[in-house]
IclR family transcriptional regulator (Pseudonocardia xinjiangensis), 516 residues
Amino acid sequence: MGDSRRGRSVLGRALAVLGSFSDERPEQTLGEIAAATGLASATTHRLVAELVEWGVLERPARGRYRIGIRLWQLGSLAPVARDLRDSALPALQDLAAVTGQVVHLVVLDDHEALFVERLAGHTDVPVRSRVGRRLPLHASGPGKVLLAHAPAEFVDEFLARKLPRTAAGTITDPGRLRRALADIRSTGYCLSRDEMTDGASSVAAPIVGPSGEVVASLSVVVPSSTENLQLLVPAVRVTAAAVTRALGPRSPLGGKRR
Amino acid sequence: MGDSRRGRSVLGRALAVLGSFSDERPEQTLGEIAAATGLASATTHRLVAELVEWGVLERPARGRYRIGIRLWQLGSLAPVARDLRDSALPALQDLAAVTGQVVHLVVLDDHEALFVERLAGHTDVPVRSRVGRRLPLHASGPGKVLLAHAPAEFVDEFLARKLPRTAAGTITDPGRLRRALADIRSTGYCLSRDEMTDGASSVAAPIVGPSGEVVASLSVVVPSSTENLQLLVPAVRVTAAAVTRALGPRSPLGGKRR
């Protein structure tokens, strides 16, 4: 039906408008939105006006737009926020309070690590993370933990791609990364030095869901001047176990509950 | 133009589909979505399918839908998350760690209090809050703080409405609420006992933005068995001052920066 096709494309265009906002471009002009989406000026103008009307976009200043509070509120209903984040928070807060360091909660999203939570530390460590930001899987502790527990075909496909360097310690060699992933599986944790950002190191561990599968990972980030990362391992593993427990009892057969 | 009218209405319908999800109904069937939006089955089906395709909705089980990770990620770009929440978090974490109690960060949203952050406590206090949830302004400490600093016309209009009771201590008399608001303005903080939920009490204080206006409030929630709420006032006010400072320098003329 013509109506269906037209409807689909209006919604698609509106979602493209929303998708043009990102961590790097949280605020845009109409011209920037039009350029990013390839939409005509008039179409962009009309869609943006309607999105503002619904509170999905906000206009902080004349001609400038950003994601609005209504979209944030809707997003807070997603399971990643309602279930995972809420369940994990008490244990993450304890880890942040005891260590005084930045704490991350991360999930796999396509082929990247998506940062679901980031608690603040008392030390000034250079970190690139931000809630909602996605970072390369191979270049961070929690990312490598997720990769270590991903299906074999996923890992093979991932290792066949280029592994870009983001800092001095980034593992860019597929063979070395494969051995690092095996280490993570056998030890149950992951130490990283200067892999995502020079000057930042981390200790990460997996979080297991009721299905028996790794559903997330967490990490504590410390300055790379920290000599013995190993000292943080018990606290990180205990926290991961606490979150695993908070997510609910594991199915006795190890299968999915649904 | 017909095209414009039809386009507007497709987007409006899609936003109505998203708006049918709420804290009370985070997961819905197609039938529930159709009933909540008043849309025809076929239209609902088509819109939901497209929203799933874009990751805006997810299908956790056959015929059941919920808000997807892509919408959560977009929402995390809203200023309320990126600016306010990120700036406030270190101080909120300190308050939660020192008191061991639930800590809230709240903003005014239409005529309600919108909970932007909620850190966990070590005590089991009955609280209705959840990130993204809205609660009545007059029935919570942080809500009353926001109301106390709202424009006079807003307060008059608010007090002319019915003030529903949510717990034994809820202030439902407009005159008494008006006096409570004056107290909050003169003392700089707010004590509440059993106003939102029986068994929960709170101490709240305002957060001031660079414009010199109150942009948010924070509170710490304690069991109502706590005898002297006053003991928590300095910690709450110091935290509110820390967040105020983190939001940036106040304009010397007290006017808006934009």
Observations:
- The beta strands of chain A are 27-29, 57-61, 64-67, 102-109, 112-119, 134-136, 190-193, 200-208, 214-223.
